[in-house]
Amino acid sequence: MHDPRLREKSYGEAGGRPQEWLDRRFVPPPAAGERLEHDEGIEGAQTKAQWVRRVYEATEDILRRPARQQIVVTHGGTLTFVLAAWIGMPYEATGYVSFRAPAGSITTLREDDWFHNRQIAALGDTRRLLNPAASP
Fold first, then answer.
1. What is the mean pLDDT of the chain?
2. Tens of pLDDT, residues 72-114
3. Cα torsion 10, 13, 15, 20: sign
């Protein structure tokens, strides 16, 4: 099932333009203070708050599905917020979080059947990229 809420952050008018165009206009978030509603200086770009809310909503819907195992495919930036939602990180705490994983890698999430604790069992595993027979 395709879920557009798992897409990468929208950079508005920067979409389809060269990275250098975005780099010249981008206003980075402050080291301290409000980061979720920060205006990055790009017309039509989503705030981090909008991006996080969208991904949290999609992740919550995925977790409500009655499946024992699921495969979720997303972009690297969005992965951060899937993981934050998975571990129950409060939305307000996501202003500084960043989980990085190589493109094409596999991140494995597990929830135990007894305590229902959630773990990030593997982050950005690339063994299958080098050896298709390898297990994540």
1. 94
2. 999 999 999 999 999 999 999 999 999 999 999 999 999 999 9
3. negative
Q: What is the DSSP letter of 32?
A: S
Residue with tokens 């395709």: 2
pTM assigned to the model:
0.91
Find residue 125's DSSP bridge partners: 106
Q: Which residues contact 21 (CB under 8 A, 6 or more apart)?
A: 14
Domain ranges of the chain: 4-71
Sequence-separated (6 or more) residues with CB below 8 Å from residue 51: 9, 10, 77, 78, 81
- Phi and psi angles of residue 23, each rounded to the nearest 5 degrees, phi first: -60, -35
Alpha-helical regions (H) of 16-108: 19-25, 48-64, 76-86
How far does Cα 72 stand from its chain's mean position?
A: 11
128 pLDDT tier (thresholds 50, 70, 90): confident
